[in-house]
Amino acid sequence: MIGEIDQEDGGMANEIRGSRLRRAASITGVAAGVAAREASARVITKTGDSDARRAAANRQQLKSAQALVKVFAGMRGAAMKVGQTLSAVDLGLVPEEIRPEFQEILATLQQGADPVPFRAIRKVVEEDLEAAIPDVFASFDETPLAAASIGQVHRARLHDGREVVVKVQYPGIAEAIHADMQNLRLGLKLLASIAPGIDTGAIADEIRERIAEELDYELEASNQRAMARVYRDHPFVVVPDVVMALCRERVIVMDFVDGRRFAEVRDLPAADRDRLGEILCRFYINGPMRHRLLNGDPHPGNALYLDDGRVAFLDFGFFKRLGDREVEHLVRSNVATYRGDADGLLDLIVELGALPPDPQLAQPFYESYHAIFGWLMVDEHTTADPSTTAEMMRRYTQMRGQEGFDELVLPAEHFVMMRSVMLLIGLLGQLGATNRWLDISREWMFGDEPVTELGRQEAAFFAGRHDYTTPAVDAGSRA
After folding, report:
1. How does pLDDT run across 270-294, given as a tens digit for each residue?
2. CATH class of 117-169+216-256
3. DSSP code of 240?
4. On the chain, which terminus has fewer CB atoms closer than 10 Å, C or N?
């Protein structure tokens, strides 16, 4: 489709992987290959011994993972983010003995997409800013720093000397994403063949709901500006300021931040990784409970690790602004989960209109909710385990399949928080971060004073700015 609408600009079909029909043909071919490998594996399983059967299944799943990467890497936007999410968390899709190799294959999606030629990027920038690049920027590096799902990032310098990065949306990407919704159905069928327990319908619904936000860079710039204000001069969190005067629907200009990528910090000493894990937990979980801004995309590519120990956070397209009432419900539901109060948790969900007041739904919902949030409530030093995301997904999918849950629609803040928590545990698990996670959670669940050094630094920073909203909790229930 891109090639059809932009032939005069260097043949964008090659840059955004051609039209929907060509991509659909490619995906159909991939799916056919997966089916053929499955048929071959079935023949072996019927005729070979147990070791041969297991080896055949393992080979098929690894090849299917490679096919899955090919499908999602060939798409842009929210569709590619599905693949990136699969690479960031361990959903237990394959047997344990081949899981590292499987995740390594999926991890290639974290490296982003192939960049498009600078001539196409120049056209977008100059159209949106209504000015030639030299009139706006003193310098503009034609080689991108990174290429992501719907845009790429270039380093530049303003005429006043300010070092910035320019995030530019790929030309025609909106049309490509909407066209790829048809292809996504084929891609999700392929995913279902590898992991039958995955709720692909829920994934498709999430993508449809988020497409408009993903494509609106002005909205993302506004989100980032709000977050940058909250964290300006914070002791260990950096959110780059945006240059709002130069932000448009397809262009975001923000301060340049130099730091290491996630892959470069995974081998740091344990104490350093534990510290980074606490920073990630505080930014993605504790932070929203205090300042009411929830970023639901803890992706490995959305943070930079600075040499001075701070962490810079990027990408605020998947975002939710919370009200006091919404925060109160999140806190109360987690406190009920911490107490093991299944009936109390159901009462809260019923109050939100998400479920009918059926007592038989209490225990299944509690087990699913606890599977996702329970690790935040462990009162002992625990190393984050990325494989627990498989249990989170299994419990949630199992619950959704039970009678009475077919019409469950959780409020947006619960959905975004659940997604954030699942992705966060994947990140912490890859870091091998250890902490007494309840020590951190007590601050927003019960309003307790922080007991870690980072917590004390953050409390001093936020003093007088943002208070937690917490329900009344008697001392005995905290033990």
Report:
1. 999 999 999 999 999 999 999 999 9
2. alpha beta
3. P
4. C
